[in-house]
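Researcher: Structure prediction, please.
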Amino acid sequence: MSVQNYRIPLGEEFYLAIERENDDGSGDMQNITGYTYILLLKEDLADADADAVASHTNTTHDTPASGLSHVGIAGSSTEDLTERTYYYAVKEITAGGRETIVVEGEVEFYKSAVLSLPA
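Model: Predicted structure follows.
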């Protein structure tokens, strides 16, 4: 599992590209046809998936035979969040039903400053 942290303005999309390698250590890409990826945004990693403040499920992959996909939470779903650090996890569900967290970390959503100058 990989851990990655991000900092994103409120109202912006939280997007993650997925490049899934085989588990055998060969470096070859995993065919993810039939896989599901779920991006969960939580106030605490221990929270139940159903309690996530936002989520996105993807079953339509960019290039499944080459292990390429993505998940993202739209800006419209992040604009009303409280300014703070949240925890995220990407859950992979294989075609056979095995569930694994493949990446997790923290994402800080913050208000971007708007500077207005006198005319």
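Model: The beta strands are 2-3, 6-9, 14-19, 36-42, 54-58, 68-73, 84-93, 99-110.
Researcher: Thanks, that helps.
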